[in-house]
Amino acid sequence: MGKSLKNSVSPDEMYDSFGADTLRVYEMAMGPLDADRPWHTDDIVGSHRFLQRLWRNIVDEATGTAAVSDSEPDAEATRALHRTILAVRADYAGLRFNTAVARLIELTNFVSKRYGGSGGLPRALAEALVLMVAPLAPHIAEELWSRLGHDGSLALRPFPQGDASLAAESTVTLPVQVNGKVRFTVDVPADADEQTVRDLVTGHEEYARHTTDRTVKRLIVVPGRIVNIALG
C-alpha cells in the first residue's frame, strides 16, 4: 500500500466509515507499538463488532436505556472481572494496548454469553467494563457512562481496582499419574493443603480402580500441579 501504487487508504476514510473509536481500537489492537504492523483494512470490522457488542450488552436497543441490574456478579463473573482488571491495568502501564484490547474483547464476549442482553448484567460489571474501555474508545465510553445514569464525565472517575484474591480460581484441576501415566484428574480447592489433596485423591473412584490388588509405594503431591502414584 502506498502513494506510488495509488492504493493508499486515508485514516479519514476509515473514520468516516467506522467512526473515531473503532479506528482507535483497531490501531491499538494491531500489535506492539514498537513493532512493524501490517495494515489490513478489512480487519477493522472486528474492532467495530467489538464495540457494537459492548453497546448491546449494556443498552436495550428497543428503549435506548441501560439494561443493567443492581444484583452482584456471581463468583465466575467476579473472577473474570477482577482477572481482567488486573491484567488490563498492567497492560496499560506497559503500553501493551494490543493485549489490553484482547482481554477486553474476551470479557465482553463472556458478558454476552452469560447475560445476553437480558437486562441482568450487574451494574458493577458494566461500569467497570466501560471504564476500562474508555482509554481506547472514549466517545462510546462517555455515552455508555451517561446512559448508566452518571452526570459527570468518566474521565474524572478512578480506574477500576482489581483484587487478586477475587481473581484467583477457587478450585484447580490436578492430573493424577499412576506409574508415570495420567489416569484421571481431581478437582481440589486452590488453597488445599497436601493432606486434603491426598484425601480427595484416595477417595476418588478412579483411585480404587487403578490401585486394587496393587501396592501403593508412594503418593507424591506437587501442590497446585500434579499428583504421582507409584505402584508396586
Could you please describe the fold and organization of this structure?
It is a single chain. With 232 residues, the chain is an alpha/beta fold. It has 2 domains: 11-166, Isoleucyl-tRNA Synthetase, Domain 1 (Orthogonal Bundle), CATH 1.10.730; 169-231, Roll (Ubiquitin-like (UB roll)), CATH 3.10.20.590. The chain contains 10 helices and 6 strands; from the N terminus they run αααβααβαααββααββ. Strands 4-3-6-5 form a 4-stranded mixed sheet, covered by helices on one side. Strands 1-2 form a two-stranded parallel ribbon. A hairpin with a 3-residue loop joins β5 and β6. α1 (11-18) crosses α2 (20-29), α4 (75-93) runs antiparallel to α5 (97-115) and α6 (123-133) runs antiparallel to α7 (138-147). The longest helix has 19 residues, at 75-93. The model has no long low-confidence stretch (mean pLDDT 89).
Secondary structure layout plus pairing:
Elements: H1 11-18, H2 20-29, H3 44-58, E1 68-69, H4 75-93, H5 97-115, E2 121-122, H6 123-133, H7 138-147, H8 164-167, E3 171-178, E4 181-189, H9 194-202, H10 205-211, E5 216-222, E6 226-231
Parallel strand pairs: 1-2, 3-6
Antiparallel strand pairs: 3-4, 5-6
Helix pairs in contact: 1-2, 2-3, 3-5, 4-5, 4-6, 6-7
Strand order of the largest sheet: 4-3-6-5
Number of strands: 6
Largest sheet: 4 strands, mixed
Question: Structural class of the secondary structure composition?
Answer: alpha/beta
Look at the structure and name the CATH superfamily of the largest domain. Isoleucyl-tRNA Synthetase, Domain 1
Unreliable runs, pLDDT <50, ≥5 residues?
none
What string, H for helix and E for strand, traces the elements in order?
HHHEHHEHHHEEHHEE
CATH topology of the largest domain: Isoleucyl-tRNA Synthetase, Domain 1
Number of helices: 10
What's the level 1 CATH class of the largest domain? Mainly Alpha
- What would CATH call the architecture of the largest domain? Orthogonal Bundle
Helix content estimate: 40-55%
The average pLDDT value, as a whole number, equals 89
Q: Tell me what portion of residues adopts beta-strand conformation.
A: 5-15%
Radius of gyration: 24 Å
- How far the N terminus sits from the C terminus, by CA atoms, comes to 68 Å
Domains counted in the coordinates: how many? 2
What general outline do the C-alpha atoms trace?
elongated
